[in-house]
Amino acid sequence: MGRIVLHKEKGPMEVKVGTESKWMCMCGLSKKKPFCDGSHKKTLDEAENAVYKYDDALNRKKVDQ
Ligand code: FES
Predict the structure, then answer these.
(1) Where do the structural domains in the chain lie, given as residue ranges?
(2) Which of 19, 33, 42, 58 is most buried, taking the most CB atoms under 10 A from its CB?
(3) What is the three-class DSSP state of 22?
(4) Whole-prediction pTM value?
(5) Separation of 26 CA from ligand 1 center, angstroms?
(6) Does the beta carbon of 29 sit less than 6 angstroms from any atom of ligand 1?
(7) Which atom of ligand 1 is least distant from the CA of 10?
(8) How far apart are the first and last CA of the chain?
(9) What is the tens place of the pLDDT at every residue in 5-56?
(10) In angstroms, rounded to a whole number, what is the distance separating the alpha carbons of residues 26 and 6?
């Protein structure tokens, strides 16, 4: 069984833990979830109204809607 989850965010969310900042993955592509690993940079040139599917190597394909 599998599941496809749609993420629209293109960057991390900062969470303050005491005086320290933690950056949480909001794009869904990080290999170190729940933390950001910089993989969101792959999303920066996505078209606004398009949907993409990413494989484990972060290759992407545009999905027909
Ligand atoms: S927000 Fe997902 S890898 Fe940075």
Answers:
(1) 13-63
(2) 42
(3) strand
(4) 0.89
(5) 6
(6) yes
(7) 1
(8) 22
(9) 999 999 999 999 999 999 999 999 999 999 999 999 999 999 999 999 999 9
(10) 11
Q: Of ligand 1's atoms, which has the minimum distance to the CA of residue 37? A: 3
**pLDDT classification of 65: cutoffs 50, 70, 90:** confident
- Index of the ligand 1 atom closest to the CA of residue 13: 1
Maximum CA pair distance of the chain?
Answer: 44
Residue entry with tokens 């999303």: 43
CA distances to 30, 34, 50, 57 from 20, in Å: 20, 16, 35, 31
Q: Which two structure tokens, joined as six digits, stand for 26?
A: 């909001």
CB 46 near ligand 1, within 6 Å = no
